[in-house]
Amino acid sequence: MTEDLQSKASEFVKKVITVGIGAAFLTEESLRSLMSEFKLPKELFSGLLESANKTKNEFFQRLSTDIMEKLTPKLDLKELISEVLEKHELDFEVKLKFTPKK
């Protein structure tokens, strides 16, 4: 009986960790599919989804901020733009259409 309880507890912990990590990287639909195995009340489930979305957004916001802080001092934007313009040709296509008002 003790081994069975430990096995179930171990499996539950694995699922909780999977959901926790998956919340940051899975789409909402994938997360819903994964969470459906737990048979949770709707209120708790929607709260978990909201928390997962908030955590994911904060994670990616911090990641992008950290990346920009590391790159900005090493990047000369004026030089980069000059180099791109020297090595590439720009083409612009504009289409204008005038139609009478009705």
Describe the protein's architecture and organization:
The protein is mainly alpha-helical and 102 residues long. The protein has one domain. The chain has 4 helices and no strands. It has helices at 2-25, 28-35, 42-71, 77-87. Helix 1 (2-25) packs across helix 3. It is elongated, with a radius of gyration of 25 Å. The termini are far apart. The mean pLDDT is 78.
User: What is the residue-mean pLDDT, rounded to a whole number?
Assistant: 78
Task: Count every helix, treating DSSP H or I runs of 4 or more residues as helices.
Answer: 4
Helix amount, in percent?
over 70%
Report low-confidence residues grouped into runs of 5 or more: none
- What is the molecular shape? elongated
Order of helices and strands: HHHH
Tell me the fraction of residues in β-strands, as a range: under 5%
- What structural class is derived from the secondary structure elements? mainly alpha
Main sheet? none
Number of domains: 1
Number of strands: 0
Please state the CA-atom Rg, rounded to the nearest Å.
Answer: 25 Å
Distance between the amino and carboxyl termini: 81 Å
Give the structure's gist in a few sentences.
With 102 residues, this protein is mainly α. Helix content is 72%, strand content 0%.
